[in-house]
Amino acid sequence: MDRRSFIKKAGLAGAGAAAATTLAAPAIAQSSTDMVIVSTWPRDFPGLGLPAQRLSARITELTDGRVNVQYFAAGERVGAFDSFDEVASGNAQAYIGADYYWIGKHAGWAAFTAIPFGLTATEIDAWCKYAGGQELWDELGDEFGIQPMAAGNTGVQMGGWFNKEINSADDLKGLKMRIPGQGGQVLTKLGASTVSLPGGQIYENLVSGAIDATEWVGPFNDYFLKLYEAAKFYYWPGMHEPGAQLTLGANKSWFTSLSKNDQEIIKAACTEENQRTLAETNANNGAYLNRLINEHGVELKEFNDDVYAAFGSAAQEVLEESKAHSDLAARIMTSVEKARAEIGAWTSISDMAYVQKRNKVLGMN
Q: What is the pLDDT of residues 178-205, one digit of tens each?
């Protein structure tokens, strides 16, 4: 082959390669998919709203835009408590929220956020990952076409904000309190009148007197909701959410239509945010508790043993009623009890025992 023929053929090959490159770009762009995420949290809200936005952005980032997330906070596309149906119906691809909001659909959902006297953050993480929890969660999700993934945790929550002191279980009778999930069912058994309000509606209801008390999360989250403006008694510890796990629930048909790689990326993003939210909350709660007390005159109160005993009796009744809902609910709650006994036994002689002795020796009690 002479030099001219070689150059001519090489030029044609180069032109062909360039054309192929030109054609390939739109094909890649067309392979991206939109992922609408609806949330139960207000926009730009520290502690819950911002992590949900962070996770949404992270999914787009890690998939190099193959999964293009459009995030809608509570009320921007649908109401907070409508997000589950929006995803189950396929109108949105995922929700971010707390699964105990859906106990009206199935009692089993409560266990995957928190149940009274249930699992701490490290315990629920262990249960889901290594003690059968995720398999049961997947089975429950399949009934509604949802693929659930752990995507955050608040740690142990505070007992709530009250406009009067709670010195006995009788003080709960007639109390109007915002508290969702099984925690609300416990308070109802003790004579309170409970409602489940989304976060964006709590402040106005507490200020107006429509409710007498509320729980939200803890000092970091509660500070920005300004609950201290409406109630001064801040009780601890919360029995209702000892380690509230948050969820990204994806429409399963949509989720399984993705490549295995992108499915795993979304799961990894959720795992990352699960740890980040807990770390962020724990890093901030102490500082914001000091601000609530020192800057806003909040009175920190501990539930006494008699009140906690009443909580415990009512919680056991609620647990048994949840088991009676269905075979799956019974298997879920029984699995939680097993994890509480076995994983909890280690917690009692590890983290809990160490912290108690450390604080005693250092005079931190």
A: 999 999 999 999 999 999 999 999 999 9
Beta strands in 91-236 (DSSP E): 94-97, 146-153, 160-162, 176-178, 193-195, 213-214, 233-236
339-346 long-range Cβ contacts below 8 angstroms, 24+ apart: 339/119, 339/123, 339/124, 339/126, 339/127, 339/131, 339/133, 340/117, 340/118, 340/119, 340/123, 342/131, 343/119, 343/123, 343/126, 343/127, 343/131, 344/119, 344/123
Cis bond upstream, residue 237 (ω within 30): yes
- 140 within 8 A of 106, measured Cβ to Cβ: yes
Continuous segment of H or E residues that includes residue 33: strand 33-39
Query: Which 3 state secondary structure label does DSSP give 243?
Result: coil
Write the CB contacts of 258 (distance below 8 Å, at least 6 apart in sequence). 33, 67, 266
- Tokens representing 74 are 């509570």
Residues 70-83: tens digit of each pLDDT: 999 999 999 999 99
Condensed to tens digits (0 to 9), the pLDDT of residues 81-117 reads 999 999 999 999 999 999 999 999 999 999 999 999 9
Domains of the chain (ranges; CATH) run 27-153+243-282 (3.40.190.170), 160-241+298-361 (3.40.190.10)
What are the respective helix, strand and coil percentages of the chain, to the nearest 5? 60, 15, 30
Residue 295 to residue 272: CA distance in whole angstroms: 34
